[in-house]
Amino acid sequence: MRYQIVRLSLVFAAAACIGGNFPSTMFAQSSASGPVGTPAVSGSQASTPAKPAPAVRRTDLAGRVSRQAQMYYEGIWGIDSLKVKYTESGEMIRFSYRVLDPDKAAPLNDKKAEPSLIDQQAGVKLVVPQMEKVGKLRQSSTPKTGMSYWMAFSNSGRRVRPGDRVIVEIGHFRADGLIVE
Fold it and tell me: Which of 24, 83, 148, 166 is least surrounded by CB atoms within 10 angstroms?
């Protein structure tokens, strides 16, 4: 008997740690024939199913960096809104950022700096391709405050996938732990 009480209290403690109101809904009864914990409804409301809460998509949170990292990128490099996106075809990975301070962000747009995207999990290092008539697939003009800039990395073989953590290097600039959306 003592073993059962200890075991039951451990179940309740675990449920409390996880969150939610497990103990209060475990033995609750509803006046309607709906699931436990749902309020009783009457009339025309009973026939219409309740809409589920919108699920948080992983991509909504994927591009976010920690507050400390955000302050670092803003203070040292003069940029924010760092994003790494997987294109629809999967053949390109697009890195973009917004300039807050053009003087600090100038090294990122330097034509001499060779950008690379590293995915240690996949074991690849992607580069910006050089197109015959267009040139490098990156913007290298003088940065302006409030403008967004981008560069595209060749992902032939589709080794880098959405959800992967990557590193972007441009000269001395390095952004660690960006998640591919």
Answer: 24
